[in-house]
Amino acid sequence: MGFLNLYAIIPVFNRKVITLRCLELLRNQTFKDFITIVVDDGSSDGTAEAIRSKFPEVIIIPGTGNWWWSKSINHGCKYALSKGADAILLLNDDTHFDNDYLSRLHAIAQNHPGAIIGSLSITQDFPYKIFFSGIRKIIWWKAKGIRYHKKFEKYDNQLTGVHPSIVLPGRGLFIPAFVFEQIGFIADSKFPQYFGDFDLVLRANKSGISTLISWDLIVYTYLEQTGKGAMFIKQDFVTFLKAFFNRYSHRSLVSNFYYLWAHCKWYYFPIAYIVDKIRIFYSFLFSKKEYFS
């Protein structure tokens, strides 16, 4: 059946040019039957004004400046559901996608009714490299996901098909409306910026909802803008350490604690938490590769 009433939700903050570029890509889609919501969490660079001028069809939900990613997504989802959304597509503005992206999504959703469907994420610049292609399983005592492909492995354009993925990022993530009714929204108090999308998909998976990734749905990711503080971006040691105590960082000790506690067996939790931190330090000190070199 696919979807009848689709809402695309994009959280933004002070990236006017990038946001407008993303909205232009949506306007150019061959599939037209959708509504776009931009959740603008307190931008001061004229983002909202530019959207109203250039894209008057886009709904803007203003945030307080303290919503961050997770609460912005939740507000957008709740608004869409109140308007009768059958499905929601989460997008980041720092992504690029082809004009037939939504047409492909519609066909895949029809073939996999009731499934959460994620997108293959590859780097924007040529030669293309894989950023995320799905995780088959998680070895919880290692806090390690077993990926289909290593991060930054060269992209093969012969990749195709729909595959199970136990977690999925919110970068091109299709969610049927009933999922929120069944398992709730993103836990924004525990995961204000990161882990919330993975946690939501894991909860859905545990409740019996199919969670899939399509290698035919491609989003191109601008890594210069995505995941500031991620391990593939060079940073000094002080910045690296501070990130552990920042609730809005990839490496937040608090968010990581909640994530592992929610999904890891209690008897694995202590070693998983420690092993995860050792791996992060090891990656920073010895094996971190600079993507942009």
Task: Report on the architecture of this protein.
About 35% of the residues lie in helices and about 20% in strands. The chain is of the alpha/beta class. The strands form two sheets. Strands 1, 2, 3, 4, 5, 6, 7, 10, 11 and 12 form a ten-stranded mixed beta sheet that branches. Strands 8-9 form a two-stranded antiparallel sheet. Strand 8 (about 135-140) and strand 9 form a beta hairpin. Helix 1 packs parallel to helix 2. The longest helix is centred in the C-terminal third of the chain and has 19 residues, at about 270-285.
Summarize the helices and strands and which ones pair or pack:
Layout: E1 6-12, H1 16-27, E2 34-40, H2 47-54, E3 59-62, H3 68-82, E4 87-90, E5 95-96, H4 101-111, E6 116-123, E7 130-132, E8 135-139, E9 144-147, E10 162-164, E11 173-176, H5 177-183, H6 196-206, E12 211-221, H7 237-242, H8 253-263, H9 269-287
Parallel strand pairs: 1-2, 1-4, 2-3, 6-12
Antiparallel strand pairs: 4-11, 5-12, 6-7, 6-11, 8-9, 10-12
Write a brief caption for the model.
Helix content is 34%, strand content 21%. It has helices spanning 16-27, 47-54, 68-82, 101-111, 177-183, 196-206, 237-242, 253-263, 269-287; strands at residues 6-12, 34-40, 59-62, 87-90, 95-96, 116-123, 130-132, 135-139, 144-147, 162-164, 173-176, 211-221. The chain starts with 5 loop residues before the first strand and ends in a 6-residue tail after the last helix.
Alpha carbon gyration radius: 18 Å
CATH topology of the largest domain: Spore Coat Polysaccharide Biosynthesis Protein SpsA, Chain A
How does the overall form come out from the CA principal axes?
globular
Q: Please give the CATH architecture of the largest domain.
A: Alpha-Beta Complex
What class would the helix/strand composition place it in? alpha/beta
Number of helices: 9
Give the H and E element order: EHEHEHEEHEEEEEEHHEHHH
Number of domains: 2
Largest sheet: 10 strands, mixed
What is the class of the largest domain in the CATH system? Alpha Beta
Helix proportion range = 25-40%
Summed over residues and divided by their number, the pLDDT gives a mean of 93
DSSP strand content: 15-25%
- Give the N-to-C terminal Cα separation: 45 Å
Residue stretches low in confidence (pLDDT < 50, at least 5 long) are: none
Q: Count every beta strand, where a strand is a DSSP E run of 2 or more residues.
A: 12
